[in-house]
Amino acid sequence: MEKTVTKSLVAVGNRSPEPLFAMSSAVVQNDKFWRWGDDNMMPSALSLMSRRSTTHRRIINDKADYIAGKGFSYDEQEPLLGALVKRANGEGDTLRRVICRLAFDKALMGNAFLEIVTDEEHSFLALYHQDASRCRLSRDGEHVILHHDWSRYRQEEAQILPLYPRFEKQNDGSLRSIVHYKEYEPMFAHYGVPKYIAGMGVSAIAYKTDCWNISRLDNSFQLSGVMMIDASMGSEAEAERIVQTAERRFAGNPGQVMFVVKEGQEHDNTRFIPVESRNEGDWSELHDQATSDIVIAHSWFRSLSGLDYSAGFSAERILHEYEVALNTVILAEQEELLAPVKQIIAELLGVDASSLEIINRPPTRSKPIYMKVWEARKADGLDYDTEDETQQQYLSQITKYNVTKIG
User: Fold this and answer.
1) Up-side HSE of residue 167: CA atoms within 13 Å toward CB?
2) 175 beta partners
3) E strand or H helix at 169, and its extent?
4) Considering the domain boundaries, does residue 237 fall inside one?
């Protein structure tokens, strides 16, 4: 008699707190995995840069949020599908949260990793996001090696998972696999390259111009210059002591003022010689140009990055650019992230996941959803018919705003 397996979604949790990365200049050499960057620490460098450049980080955050959408629509006749949307793994993450983290990693590092957990009977399915900075590809081309700190790699601390569609049994009895998403780039066979690769230099410029402003603020906007000090001293150590004392008392930010100590004369000629700089405009233009170039490198849009709000809030422009972003960036990324997920659900749970779609909503709207179609047409200066049944519908009835199943 054929064995019947009852399928369900089980809370499978095997995570422990992940330690923070420690930056290191050491080059990790190993014949078991492919290095990610010359020193194998490219993810750490990309992460650090994203924490230092405000515009760069804002774009990455926004792209991940837009790609993850506002939830999922799905066939209500598939209860397992609905359960997976609401709880994708044993840590209580929704499917949207998992997709959002994958989108964030892919936007930041050009790579993302999705772990799949099931058993031999395929009686349950759990989907986990794996921090891309913890992952490296094995030399055999069939596995992913996970380690909490690649600057101090120890083989006995690493976990090895097979690349999808291969599954391998783990010590806890589960079957596991991992999906590797990556941005295509010629000449890079193992790891993807982030889309903004051409904008790394301008991200550094934006960061440095911010540091320059902070330095001026710390220095209380004092002029830079040369302080000539008349003093008598018996040794170089005494001269150094005089300079250090002067720096502590007079140089708001050490390095902004250069101190020169010379042998005292009959008359005290101590004086400050300012070095005036009139390049504030150049610095401001440089920062603005770098910010614009960052947006371009990301293939993104200024109004969706919050850059033009100071010049006035234009709902029409935001809606227009969102529509362009939706059709050129967002939908393509959503399809790339969801395609393996749908395939996995169909193979392991035997559930038709074709109805699973991400709900997209613009950041703003020009007309309230309680308006009728004829009212909206009238407001836009178009022909309208108050007697037409199709124009009697509310805008909420012909848009995705009326979707109630949101995960």
Assistant:
1) 17
2) 118, 169
3) strand 168-169
4) yes
Q: Locate tokens 């010359």: which residue?
A: 38
Its pTM stands at: 0.73
Judgement on whether residues 319 and 390 belong to the same structural domain of the protein: no
Q: How many domains does the chain have?
A: 3
- Residues 267 and 304 grouped into a single domain: no
Residue 53 burial (10 A CB sphere; 0-12, 13-18, 19+) = buried
Query: Both 348 and 382 in a single domain?
Result: no
113 burial level (CB within 10 Å; 0-12, 13-18, 19+):
buried
pLDDT digits (tens, 9 = 90+) for 219-252: 554 555 655 666 655 667 776 776 676 666 555 5
Domain that holds residue 372: 367-399
Which whole-number Å values give the CA distances from 321 to 58, 303, 380, in the listed order? 17, 7, 19
342/231 same-domain check: no
The tens digit of pLDDT for each residue in 106-134 reads 999 999 999 999 999 999 999 999 999 99
Query: In the structure encoding, which two tokens stand for residue 209, read together?
Result: 């111009």
Task: Name the amino acid, one letter, at 102.
Answer: L
Burial class (CB in 10 A: 0-12, 13-18, 19+), 237: exposed
Answer yes or no: is pLDDT of 389 > 90: no
Say yes or no: 359 and 229 in one domain: no
pLDDT digits (tens, 9 = 90+) for 178-215: 999 999 999 999 999 999 988 888 777 766 766 666 66
Provide the token pair at 314.
Answer: 């234009």
